[in-house]
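Researcher: First entry.
Model:
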Amino acid sequence: MKVKSIVASSALILASQIAMAAQPERIVSFDYGSLDTLTELGLSSQVVAVPKQTLPDYLAEYNTDKYTDVGNAKNIDIKAAGSANPTLIMISGRQKSHEEELKKIAPVENVSFDNKDYWKNFTAQVEHIGQQFGVEDKAQAALTNLHTNIDKLKAKVGPDKHFVLVLHNNGHLIMGNYPVVEQVMGLTPAKLPAGVETKKRGNRSFTPLTPANIVAMKPDVLYVVDRSVAINKPEEALDLAALKQKLVELGGKDIKVSNLNPALWYISGNGLESVYLQAKEVASAF
C-alpha cells in the first residue's frame, strides 16, 4: 500500500512539474543575453517587456509596440516593468541595485555568472533556461549547434594568434576582458610590456593602454569596443582611422585592427545568439 502511495505521489509531483513548465510566463528581461537565448529556444512569445533604449540591432524584433519599453540596460523603468504584469523578471549585474524593488513586482532571477570557466558556466545557464521552460531538448540541440559553428570559426582563425582588446571611452583606451575571445575562440592575450600598471578606482581595477603600449605588445590583432558609441554618445566616438595611423607610425603596420559591434559586446553577450555573433566577429579579423 505504501509503495502505491509513493508511486502515486511521485506521479503527482511529476505531473505538477510538467504543468508548471508548460505554463507560459510573462517575462521582463533586462538582460539581452537571456533575451536572445529565449528567442533561440522559441520562447519569445513569453516575453512582454524589454529595455528598448539600448536594444542591440540583432534583437530589433523586440522594438515594436507588442513589448513594453522598460528603459535601458542601466537606467531601468521600474514603473513600466510593473505595468507589464510580469510573472518573472530577468536581471544581470547592471540592474543588481534594483533587485529588491523589482521583487515587489514579480520573482527576480539574476542571470549573471562567473566568467572564469566561461564555457562551463554558459552551458549551465542555457541548460537551466531549457529546464526552467520545459525545452531541454531544444537547449541541448542549440548548444551542440553552437559548438559546431564555433569550431568552424576557430579553424578559420588558426593556431597561435595573439590579441589585445581595448575598451574605448571618451578618448581613453583600457584593456578589456571578454572571455569569448580567449576562452571560446582560443586566442592568446598578448603580454603587457614593462611599465604598464593596473590602477584602482574604488572597487574597480583597470589597465590604461596607449598606442605605443599596444605596438610593444605585438598582437596579431587589436580588437576595439567603443563604449562611447554603445552608450549613445557618438560625439565621443573613437577616431579609428587616426588610431590605425598612429599604430603604423609607431611600427605596428602589421597589426590588424577590428572594430567590434559596441552594443553586441558592451551591452549584450552571454546568450546563444550573441556568443555566436561575437565569435563570428572575432574570426572576421582573419
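Researcher: Second entry.
Model:
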Amino acid sequence: MFARNLADDSCDLAESGRAPTATSHAASGRLRRRDATGLLSGRPRPIADDRPRFGAGSNTQARMAAREVVMARTVGSAAEETRRRILDVARQLFVERGYAGTSVQEIAEQVRMTKGSLYYHFSSKEELLHALMTPPLSEHEAFVADLDAAGTMTADLLARLVDIFDEHASLLRSLFGDPSVARELLRLRLPERMLTLQQAIGGGTDQAAVLRGRCVVGVIHAGVLTAGETATPPERRTGEPRGSFAQRRRLTADEKSFVVAAASAVLGVPASTAHATASGPGRLAR
C-alpha cells in the first residue's frame, strides 16, 4: 500500500514538473495514513474559523447601537417604565403636532433613546397609536358591561362615562379630527365599538334606541372634547402652544355637572344630587 502511494505521488509530481523528494514521500505517507482514520482526501482540510467578524462596513456607531438595543431588552418594572415614557411622549407629540406630523425619530429623541431601541418596545408608529387607544376603548367596553349588568342608566353611570371621555379628551380630540388616522381607527373597529356604546346607552338595537344613544354621546362629545377650544382667553397662558393647553385642560366640577345633567335630560334620567353644584343642576357658575 505504501509503495503504491509513493508511486501515485511520483506521478503527480512528474505531471507538475517537479521531481519527487524524500520529504514529499514522507508527507504523502503521513497524509495517506490519515486516510485510514476516515479522511476522504490526502490533502489537509481547512480549519473552520467560528470567531465573529465585523463586516467591512461596520463601525463604532453600529456597535454602540447594537449594544444599546441589548441594554433596552430589560424585563419587569424597568421595561414597563420605558414603555410608559415612550407612550407619554408619543401622546404629547400627537396632541401638539398631530399624528401625521410626528415621526418615530422625533419620539425617540424626546425620550432620549435611539430609534432602534424604541422599535424594540413598539414596532411601528401604528402600534404606538393602538397602545394609546387601548385604555379608553377598554374603559368603554367595561362601561357597557356594567351598564348591561345594571339594567338601566343612572346619573352615576353617565358621570362615569363623562369621566372616561374627559380623562382621554386631549388624545381623542386630536385623533378624531385627524384624517391621517382614519385607517388605523377602522382597524381598531372604532365604528363598531361606538355603535355598541350607543345601543347600550339607548337601551336597544332599534333605530330609536341608537338615536338616543347617539344624542347622549354627542352631548358628552360636545361638552368634553371641545372644552379646550371654548376656554376663555384669561385661562390660556401667554405664548403657550395650543396643543399643550389642550393636553392639560380638564372639566371643572361645574362643567362636569352640567354635561351630566344635559346627558341625563336626553334620556330622562333623574339628576343625582352627587353631581349638583351650588349653582344648581344644569347651570354653570358664572
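Model: Note on the second entry: The mean pLDDT is 75.
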